[in-house]
Amino acid sequence: MSLKDAYVEKLKAQLDEWSADIDVLETKVRKADAELRIKYDEQVIALKEKRDLAKVKLAEVQSSAGEAWQELKKGSDEAWEAIKHALAEARKKFGE
Question: Which of 21, 28, 54, 71 could form a disulfide with 79 if both were Cys (CB 3.0 to 4.6 A apart)?
Fold first, then answer.
């Protein structure tokens, strides 16, 4: 397995994990009272946007040729850090 393939597999696994985390948070939003639901709903929407951006970055890395994927890795890593941080903050706010 090439370094690119290993990197892509790692990112795919992390995306799957984050998608599951977002689903859990979304379930909590549905159970919250109306005032909290609005606040939490905004947070979940922001998380989904960051996740979608991470998916785009992953697709760019996957479709890159040769060593170009290493150039794209930086942007991908930045997107990953952003969603990682946002999920950590959301967990704190949701009381996990």
Answer: 54
